[in-house]
Amino acid sequence: MESVSNSSSQLNVKQYEPTLVAPAEETEKGLYFLTNLDQNIAVIVRTIYCFKSESKGNEDAVKIIKDALSKVLVPYYPVAGRLTISTEGKLIVDCTGEGAVFVEAEADCTIEEIGDTTKPDPVTLGKLVYDIPGARNILEMPLLVAQVTKFKCGGFVLGLCMNHCMHDGIAAMEFVNSWSETARGLPLKVPPVLDRSLLKARNPPKIEYEHKEFAQIEDISETSELYKEEMHYSSFCFDPEKLEQLKKKAMEDGVLEKCTTFEALTAFVWKSRTQALRMQPDQQTKLLFAVDGRSRFEPPIPKGYSGNAIVLTNSICNASEQLENPLSFTVGLVQKAINMITDSYMRSAIDYFEATRARPSLSATLLVTTWSRLSFHTVDFGWGEALFSGPVALPEKEVILFLSHGKERKSINVLLGLPASAMKIFEELMQI
């Protein structure tokens, strides 16, 4: 048994020996194809789900969740396999049926004592997910690691490490919801569609667009020096009123005909971050964000597609253009980036990777990830919906995350990390 503790934080968690949970029945073996959209984001995503019921304690939580995992790994059998490298030098899954890693753990406090779960806290929240000791890269990490931590109050937390190459946000939530439906003895609402050949590259590849998402920008503002400072993490809540204000601000000069919440908020945080990082006027700055391609591909991707069907779009401008123009300018750039995503653009992006094996570059870049539309809140293993669910940490320093917030989920929490001095400026700019 290993005890994870940290003097700066009150949370003390005892983790028991990890076990493997294999699929409940014999499943298909062999190699399972991953598309180029899966290759691009092979990062580990750590999330937690907190549960507590008035009528039911946590005595059976481990058994119920573990048994349901074994059952759900039958339709989702690739998740029970291991990543390896194909003959083409790409990631591929070897469907060994080894199973997911499962860890039981106990905390010495109540769920309420975890503290503020609305902002990323890799130290405290990190104790609620299990890291494979000695794993040096993603090939040495299982595709799914689950930890169930029981708290003294009768509540428990499910902490997950999942590899993004297996599912994008929508598919990941379909998997977790399927797992929770299985725990409640229900049939799957959305059975998985495992055939990823729908999104394979064309032969020969046909690159029809420029794909600036891969552009390497020179950091003439030396922001990398700034990032040597201590990192500060924070979350900013935009309630419906504030979001409405932002949209009005974006449209007040009459340049734009319409503007969505996402467009206004993305433009506002991009512009504010450029200012907070004190970028030089002629510093190019890039925005990247994912657009769900499910309905944009022709024909549309079937419901339940379990891989990555998101495509990165981009916009690049000089810092001075952002800072000298009203908000409508930056919103216009965001709108152009969204409109760029068509079937032919997405197919071209898939083929671009086929031909170049390039990875999106993050220098002088902001990557916005939207989780506000994901069905986190419907996860119910039999203890009611999660009191809280969300990320443990941000995957990269360039990432800003949008999460829905509040009972009605109409507010958006913006989560980010910045060097201490930049965060001070950013906080002031958020006072709208």
Automatic annotation (TrEMBL):
InterPro entries xrefs: CAT-like_dom_sf, Plant_Fungal_Acyltransferase
Pfam family, one: Transferase
Highest taxon, organism lineage: Eukaryota
UniProtKB keywords: Acyltransferase, Transferase
MF terms (GO), sorted A to Z: acyltransferase activity, transferring groups other than amino-acyl groups
Membership in a protein family: Belongs to the plant acyltransferase family.
Name of the protein in its database record: Omega-hydroxypalmitate O-feruloyl transferase
